[in-house]
Amino acid sequence: xxxxxxxxxxxxxxxxxxxxxxxxxxxxxxxxxxxxxxxxxxxxxxxxxxxxxxxxxxxxxxxxxxxxxxxxxxxxxxxxxxxxxxxxxxxxxxxxxxxxxxxxxxxxxxxxxxxxxxxxxxxxxxxxxxxxxxxxxxxxxxxxxxxxxxxxxxxxxxxxxxxxxxxxxxxxxxxxxxxxxxxxxxxxxxxxxxxxxxxxxxxxxxxxxxxxxxxxxxxxxxxxxxxxxxxxxxxxxxx
Amino acid sequence: xxxxxxxxxxxxxxxxxxxxxxxxxxxxxxxxxxxxxxxxxxxxxxxxxxxxxxxxxxxxxxxxxxxxxxxxxxxxxxxxxxxxxxxxxxxxxxxxxxxxxxxxxxxxxxxxxxxxxxxxxxxxxxxxxxxxxxxxxxxxxxxxxxxxxxxxxxxxxxxxxxxxxxxxxxxxxxxxxxxxxxxxxxxxxxxxxxxxxxxxxxxxxxxxxxxxxxxxxxxxxxxxxxxxxxxxxxxxxxxxxxxxxxxxxxxxxxxxxxxxxxxxxxxxxxxxxxxxxxxxxxxxxxxxxxxxxxxxxxxxxxxxxxxxxxxxxxxxxxxxxxxxxxxxxxxxxxxxxxxxxxxxxxxxxxxxxxxxxxxxxxxxxxxxxxxxxxxxxxxxxxxxxxxxxxxxxxxxxxxxxxxxxxxxxxxxxxxxxxxxxxxxxxxxxxxxxxxxxxxxxxxxxxxxxxxxxxxxxxxxxxxxxxxxxxxxxxxxxxxxxxxxxx
Amino acid sequence: xxxxxxxxxxxxxxxxxxxxxxxxxxxxxxxxxxxxxxxxxxxxxxxxxxxxxxxxxxxxxxxxxxxxxxxxxxxxxxxxxxxxxxxxxxxxxxxxxxxxxxxxxxxxxxxxxxxxxxxxxxxxxxxxxxxxxxxxxxxxxxxxxxxxxxxxxxxxxxxxxxxxxxxxxxxxxxxxxxxxxxxxxxxxxxxxxxxxxxxxxxx
Lengths: 239, 486, 203
Hints:
The complex is a heterotrimer of chains A (about 240), B (about 475) and C (about 200).
Chain A: H1 14-30, H2 34-50, H3 54-77, H4 80-109, H5 112-121, H6 126-155, H7 162-167, H8 169-196, H9 216-238
Chain B: E1 2-11, E2 19-26, E3 31-35, H1 42-49, H2 52-55, E4 59-67, E5 70-71, H3 77-83, E6 84-87, H4 100-110, H5 115-128, H6 144-158, E7 162-166, H7 174-189, E8 193-197, E9 210-215, E10 218-223, H8 225-230, H9 233-238, E11 259-272, E12 275-287, E13 290-294, H10 301-308, E14 315-321, E15 324-326, H11 328-334, E16 335-338, H12 351-355, H13 364-373, H14 389-402, E17 407-411, H15 419-434, E18 438-442, H16 446-452, E19 455-460, E20 463-469, H17 475-481
Parallel strand pairs in B: 3-8, 3-9, 6-7, 7-8, 13-18, 13-19, 16-17, 17-18
Antiparallel strand pairs in B: 1-2, 1-4, 4-5, 9-10, 11-12, 11-14, 14-15, 19-20
Helix pairs in contact in B: 4-5, 4-6, 5-6, 13-14, 14-15
Chain C: E1 2-3, H1 14-39, H2 48-55, H3 57-67, H4 72-86, H5 91-110, H6 116-127, H7 132-139, H8 141-145, H9 155-163, H10 168-196
Helix pairs in contact in C: 1-2, 1-3, 1-4, 2-10, 3-10, 4-5, 5-6, 6-10
Keywords (chain A): Cell membrane, Membrane, Transmembrane, Transmembrane helix
GO cellular component, one term (chain A): plasma membrane
Main location (chain A): membrane
């Protein structure tokens, strides 16, 4: 296997990661209490540390702890509409944060090619894999394009900022969309030519250089997350 | 064996690039170079052979294109792909993956080779092409030349019998062009059939067996390299072709009209995220000078030009305009950068609207006069996107003139241009200089520097290594800079 | 021999798939960019779908104009669903985009992807994908905040939700999002006519 970083204590199969995300969403949905959510975030933090993202994991836990304290305080001392507003907002936050944090770990430890290999393994249709691959590859290109466009706007005395947009909406819209979409449609042509001339239309299923394999780590992590989810369900029923 | 029998083609909805009764036989193992002006149909010939016509580009096709005696139209696209490999012009839009290994494997993955074979081939390809250093990297962090190597490697891994290269050197620097030349020699030594459509000819003279010259969709000449090299400079230019041998090019040193206002850089150092890019640059430039900026990719040429026009702010030292210090805002007001991909700076729905885009009270008279000077009046109603590359540059230059910029910077203005267009860009730059602008040209193009620039700056290893006039006395220096042996 | 291969047949070509992928990338970035200012602000969270709907009209319409075949919009919706899921957004986001993608595809399909009004309507529909999450809040406020409040859910909170919390908010959200999307599509339609058709890239 190529390019795999063996120093890390834990390497997970992308399929496992997707499953973990799903379990995480379910756990966040079932969460019987805030303490439970806190444990979930802590668990994700440990996973992050094992995957080599200890800085990110610690930041996530600290940030969540702060919001946790704020939530407890807000629920106890706020009243009226303000409280309702925060209930709504924080409700969404607590549901989304664990998943977002896990997804940060998943995204930063998964190579695009591994992800596509996983999609291949689960026999996703080509009609979905091709656009998805192109999309993932094109996102950084948008960043590059945007840097050029910003330069071009500045030289035309158009400010590439929110303020500029407010003062001069018509011009700013043209400046952003026109070059971006022209570049996109040119890229679409050239990229499809490059794909077609390298045989992407082959009706046989393609193979994949990066080989992914399920291992003991995958089974163990999945079990932990599943058990945690079930515990949440049980607590909720009992609660 | 490739054969075109009396082939005519025209793209639907487009007049350019069609072909008229082309007949061409390419035996196995031959290397054929297709040349001619932009729009002469050389790219179309390559598209006939890799099956993009008729599978991808619609149009009217007559005659037969045969690959080993079988009509290409009858072979499915993915089977052609295994036998004919294509490398294209733009390294930015040829890759499908984010990392280099998967990209090299892209073609053979489509062929559905077993995984063990895939990794064996990727390793072998990297070794044979000398790109082990690029393995397991993020493609977005590679230079244009490196991306092009990966694109080549991806085709090489598929081991096709025929290679088609469509203007592969357009966006490359001198070193990468040399590496590309080596690749072509390598595949030739393996007995592959090679067809290259190119404007830059010099790097292929040793390896080509035959040079086919196209004019307006017809084969107007077929030469052996020896015959081709005998063409005189004026004949060659009349055919619209770039230099065949760079050793024959020498500085033409257009006289600079040195007068008036000056730009001065005092001890400028440039940083990117606190890392030093270039340090201690000091120079003076006067109106009417055309200053070439040369150096390898990554030497800081782009950062330098962005700093010069106030787009890059991380710098120390001072910029003076007529002894007045200029901060980045003032520089931005005074200068204009014509980008390598000029499409990013065209926003409006017509050339005319583009010229006055964003200007509150445009001076109609000045606009009209500028368009006339730069030969844009006849296109003024057209959408900028429908113009050719050279014409788009003209529009950008017109914009800079109308908004009263004094300092103009061109980034790689000649990439992918044929001789005529290059000469026109040269003419454009000389016109701008004659109007009293200071022009900087970032370029890898030796031929273009010889014809256009009055002075050259050389950046290397974080410093400005040299600053000299383009003149007959400095010819040796200039050649050394571009590693052209005498 | 006049050949118009593949372009006239029904299935999506590689070019269509690549185009869909590229425009999905831009669609995703712009949806996120438009929504992010709202999402992190407690006062404005509920208006996030409007922010997202504001920016994507031109992108969506150009995609439809370039591909104009069935499945392309569905793929866009599914990709958005996958991406939202993987980035850890609320699950209803994914569900919303996937289902509205299918509906939007059918809507535009009625006009064979050429009818400007139906394309516009189809964009308005796909923009509704973002509001599913918030609708769940209104349907089931207890479940929403259950974990935060002690002893399951406080009666006072429920009462407040049913009385004080304005029942017009979901309506404002839906109508507002539709309105913003219509505006975005109108801008996009103009841009298509003024720029992209003239530049010859809608073919």
